[in-house]
Amino acid sequence: MRFLIIFIFLITNVVAEELPGIKNIVIHKIPKTYDNVIFLDKNDQKISINEYNGNLLILNFWATWCEPCKEEMPSLDKLQVNPELDKIKIFAINIGKENSDKVNKFFEDFNIKNFEPYFDPPTTLAKMFSLRGVPTSILINKEGQEFARIIGSIDFEDKKFVSWIKKYN
Asked: E-assigned strands of the chain?
């Protein structure tokens, strides 16, 4: 069993960076590259992350029924307008197969105003990124590669997190 755990750790190429109070960030030793990362806006228009190279991207996967998503979404909204992060772009991608009216009501109820909702209706990205639950946030560097992910919810306004993420801005 011990051998199996060591083996799995070695083949995943990840390391957890210590951020006191933030335990669920996984940072990749070698950034991951994906082809065709495409999702839909509220008008069913395709959005590709390739259009945003040169920016720090957060792809936040969530659902309206997810309690931790409800907790973190307001802080994610505020992160989008943090003046220290002028090159950040946040995409809140709903994977709950919910209609746009329900998603828009969620944004209204939680006063989310600084970014729009996006959709992954066939759960293509959920499969591509091997998501195990929501919320999960994929952090994409300026070269378009996943350099880290957040599994579960965090406070995106946490000073330690903001200080850390600024290094990638």
From this structure: 14-15, 25-32, 38-40, 46-48, 56-62, 88-94, 117-119, 136-140, 146-151
Q: Encoding tokens for residue 93? A: 């991608």
Please state whether the peptide bond connecting residue 135 to the residue before it is cis, i.e. omega within 30 degrees of 0.
yes
* Residue 19 DSSP one-character state: B
In contact, 41 and 118? CB cutoff 8 Å:
yes
Q: Cα–chain-centroid distance for residue 107? A: 17
> Residue 126 CB: number of other CB atoms within 10 A?
17
Using the predicted structure, report yes or no on whether residue 21 has a pLDDT greater than 70. no
State the residue range of the domain holding 72: 51-138
Q: How many domains does the chain have?
A: 1
pLDDT in tens, 50-97: 999 999 999 999 999 999 999 999 999 999 999 999 999 999 999 988
> What CATH code is carried by the domain that includes residue 130?
3.40.30.10
